[in-house]
Amino acid sequence: MHTPHIIDPQLKLGTVSLSVADLERSLNFYQNRIGLRLLKRANGTVSLGVGETVLLKLHHQPGAKISHRRTGLYHFALLLPSRFALAQVLHHIIERQPPIDGASDHGVSEALYLTDPDGHGIEIYCDRPHSQWYINQDTLLMYTHPLDIDDVLSERTHNPQLFNGLPYGTAIGHVHLHVADLEKANRFYIDILGFERPPISAKIPSASFINAGGYHHTLGLNIWAGLGAQPPTSDHARLLSFEMIFSNQDQLDQVRQRLNSAGIQQEKQRQGWLVRDPSLNPILMRMTN
């Protein structure tokens, strides 16, 4: 009997790297509208994050076009450490008035959605307690309902602090990708890499939500850009990589061995190993620092 491969249960997601058409425009958006801090700037690349943790790298690509109906990034998701932090961000967004794409209650989490000037999607969210994620032992209570904005903002009633950027503890909670073929994507991420796909309460045939270590979802995969969508070209503003951070060398080596057995090429990088999924979405696999 085949024993399924299981990816490192302590796997975390790290830095998301994007190309952008106008670095100053993007810096203004991510610093002043989103609340990330500039940590480093050199050679047309900036690193933004919280504390000393780099969450986002922006690479200047003058004239880059917005990508439409292509594979690549649907959104990267900034996980906040508390509902109060979400209230702070929501209040800040309302004051600054950047366009907001949506605000949703997903059962397991509460989320805000925005798009940056280059068309890159952003989710900013907080989790509900783990004890509220399941409707039975193995079915995740995931759905999409309108967010109760007033109830979220009520978190500030007794603590109306000024917004001073995203708080310490903010992390990349998940990454959601456009793929060309959901079945091929699932085979790659589940059968080879070892992600798991628990049943969820909302049935979405055009999307898959998979996890490492029992999280509600570490990755989202969808075919909403169209079945057979092509990858972005070099003149598009696009996803350059997102990091999968393994807790130890053995866990990374196991995944690399499975990729080798499947004939999937891995490119050595200074920080780790770059691999592409069947839709050519780029993943940088590395060890924890």
Per-chain topology:
Layout: E1 12-20, H1 23-34, E2 37-42, E3 45-50, E4 53-60, E5 72-79, H2 83-96, E6 102-105, E7 109-115, E8 121-127, E9 145-146, H3 149-153, E10 171-178, H4 182-193, E11 207-210, E12 219-222, E13 239-246, H5 249-261, E14 267-268, E15 273-276, E16 282-287
Parallel strand pairs: 1-4, 5-8, 10-12, 13-16
Antiparallel strand pairs: 1-13, 2-3, 3-4, 5-10, 6-7, 6-9, 7-8, 11-12, 14-15, 15-16
Description:
- By secondary structure, this protein is α+β, with helices and mostly antiparallel strands.
- It has one domain (12-287): 2,3-Dihydroxybiphenyl 1,2-Dioxygenase, domain 1.
- 19% of the residues lie in helices and 32% in strands.
- The chain has helices at residues 23-34, 83-96, 149-153, 182-193, 249-261; strands at 12-20, 37-42, 45-50, 53-60, 72-79, 102-105, 109-115, 121-127, 145-146, 171-178, 207-210, 219-222, 239-246, 267-268, 273-276, 282-287.
- A hairpin with a 3-residue loop joins β6 and β7.
- The longest helix is centred in the first third of the chain and has 14 residues, at 83-96.
- The protein is globular, with a radius of gyration of 19 Å.
How many domain modules? 1
What would you give as the CATH superfamily? 2,3-Dihydroxybiphenyl 1,2-Dioxygenase, domain 1
Instruction: Please bin the fraction of helical residues.
Output: 10-25%
Structural class: alpha+beta
CATH topology: 2,3-Dihydroxybiphenyl 1,2-Dioxygenase, domain 1
